[in-house]
Specification:
Elements (H helix, E strand, L loop, with lengths): L3 E4 L4 E6 L10 H7 L3 E6 L16 H10 L6 E6 L1 H12 L4 E7 L4 H7 L1 H19 L3 H12 L10 H9 L2 H10 L17 E6 L4 H13 L3 E6 L6 H4 L1 H13 L1
Parallel strand pairs: 2-3, 2-4, 4-5, 5-6, 6-7
Antiparallel strand pairs: 1-3
Helix pairs in contact: 1-11, 2-3, 4-5, 4-9, 5-6, 6-7
Length: 256
C-alpha cells in the first residue's frame, strides 16, 4: 500500500520523492510553490508515513523504486530529495521514456562519490561511522541524534518535538537498509548515468555536508544535460527551509 499526497493543478505531472526518515508532507511547502505549474503526487516511501512497512526479505531500495515506478502512469517530471533523489535518478536510468525532467536535491548516492573522489568519500565515511555503528548495536536514539546532526534541518536534536524524535529513531534501521544501494551501487545505477538525457537540475545547500557537493561533482561529469545551483543559506533540508528558492530554480530551468 502506497500513501499518496496530491497537490497542484498544472498541465504537466510530477512525482515527488522525500528523504529518508521523513514522509510526503515534508515536500508540501515546495509543492505549494509549484501548484499552478504542476499536478503533483508525493508518496510515502516504504516504512514511512502511512505507506506499507519495508518487507525485510527484499532489498529496500528496490522496493522503494518499484513503489515510485508504480506512480509513473504517464511521462512525468520527477523531483527527489536526498534518498528520494537517489530513487529519482534510478528511475531515470531504468525508465527514461517516463521521465520529462529530473530535479535532484542533494542525492545521497555515495557510490558515485566514492568512484569520483575517494578522499572525499573516505572523509564522509569516517563521519558516518559513528551513527552506523550505533544502528548496528541497536542504540537507535544515539544513531538518530548523530545522523540528524549531519543530515537534519539544522535544529539540535533537543529542539525536535518528542513525536518527531520517536518517528526518526524508530526508522533508523532503514538508513542501514539503504546502504547496499547508495554506497555499493547494488542497483547498478552508475553504469546507466550516461544514458540519462532528459533535462536535469541539481541543487545543493550552501551549508550542506561536503560529500553532497562531491556527489553532484560526479553526477555533473557523467550526466550531460544538467544545470546546477547552490542555494544560499540552506543546508540539506532546502525544500523545507527554502522552498521558494528551490521552486524558482525548477521553474526557470525546467518549466520555462
Amino acid at each position: 500500500m502506497t500513501h499518496v499526497v496530491q497537490s497542484g493543478h498544472g498541465t504537466d505531472r510530477a512525482l515527488m520523492l522525500h528523504p529518508m526518515l521523513a514522509d510526503a508532507r515534508v515536500l508540501e511547502p515546495l509543492m505549494a510553490k509549484l501548484g499552478d505549474a504542476l499536478s503533483m503526487v508525493a508518496i510515502d516511501l516504504p516504512g514511512h508515513g502511512q505507506s506499507e512497512d519495508w518487507d525485510m526479505s527484499r532489498d529496500y531500495a528496490q522496493m522503494a523504486t518499484e513503489m515510485a515506478s508504480g506512480m509513473l502512469e504517464t511521462p512525468s517530471h520527477v523531483i527527489g530529495h536526498s534518498f528520494g533523489a537517489y530513487i529519482a535518478l534510478r528511475l531515470a536510468t531504468e525508465q527514461p521514456d517516463k521521465i520529462l525532467s529530473l530535479t535532484l536535491i542533494e542525492p545521497v548516492f555515495f557510490a558515485v562519490a566514492k568512484e569520483f573522489d575517494r578522499d572525499a568519500y573516505a572523509a564522509y565515511e569516517r563521519e558516518a561511522k559513528s551513527f552506523m555503528q550505533a544502528i548496528m548495536v541497536g542504540d537507535l536514539v544515539t544513531a538518530a541524534r548523530l545522523f540528524t546532526a549531519v543530515w537534519g534541518d539544522g535544529r539540535p536534536w533537543e529542539a525536535l518535538k518528542p513525536d518527531a524524535q520517536d518517528y526518526i529513531t524508530s526508522r533508523m534501521p532503514l538508513i542501514a537498509a539503504g546502504e547496499p544501494a547508495i554506497v555499493s551501487d547494488r542497483g547498478n545505477v552508475v553504469s546507466g548515468l550516461e544514458t540519462v538525457t532528459c533535462p536535469c537540475l541539481f541543487l545543493q545547500g550552501e551549508h550542506s555536508p561536503q560529500v553532497a557537493s562531491t556527489i553532484l561533482d560526479a553526477l555533473e561529469a557523467k550526466v550531460p544535460s544538467s544545470v546546477r545551483h547552490v542555494i544560499e543559506g540552506a543546508g540539506h533540508m532546502a525544500p523545507l527551509t527554502h522552498p521558494d528558492v528551490v521552486a524558482r530554480h525548477i521553474r526557470e530551468t525546467l518549466l520555462a
